[in-house]
Amino acid sequence: MQTNPDQIIEKLETLLGKERSAILAGDLKSIGSIASEKEKLFIENKIAAPNLEALERLRKMVSRNQTLLAAAIKGVRAVTSKLGALQSGQCELSTYNKSGKRIVLGVGLAGTLQHKA
């Protein structure tokens, strides 16, 4: 199926916008379905003479989304690492009490609970 190049570009821009919103919201399920929609759009359509300005817009949108995804993945890895360290007692957890005072909680290597103010 071949569609008007402008329609394909418009659909891609819409999908990339949805993808950005899903990334920012942490909606992994939507990110997967949007990726499938983009793949289907590329497979089913061929752009004979793409508009270079539109392609540049798409390139910027894709680049932005890649940067956001990389940051999200980095954040997930950091949380995973921190949770693993907390579970094994290798680090402390800093938090704040109701009055805004910073407190540090953690389990020492000897297995004793530590509270530092």
The average pLDDT score comes to 83
Distance between the termini: 67 Å
Approximately how much helix is present in the residues? Answer: 55-70%
Overall number of strands: 3
Strands side by side in the biggest sheet: 1-2-3
Over all CA atoms, what is the radius of gyration? 23 Å
Work out the helix count: 3
Shape descriptor reads: elongated
Q: Number of folding domains?
A: 1
How much of the sequence is in beta strands?
5-15%
Could you give a short account of the major beta sheet?
3 strands, antiparallel
Structural class: alpha+beta
Run of helices and strands: HHHEEE
Unreliable sequence segments = none
Report on the architecture of this protein:
The structure is a single chain. With 117 residues, the protein is α+β, with helices and mostly antiparallel strands. The chain has one domain. It is built from three helices and three strands. The protein has helices at 5-25, 28-44, 52-88, and strands at 92-96, 102-107, 113-116. The chain has a three-stranded antiparallel β-sheet, with no helix packed on it. A hairpin with a 5-residue loop joins strand 1 and strand 2. Helix 1 packs antiparallel against helix 2 (28-44) and helix 1 packs parallel to helix 3. The radius of gyration is 23 Å and the shape is elongated. The chain starts with a helix and ends with a strand. The model has no long low-confidence stretch (mean pLDDT 83).
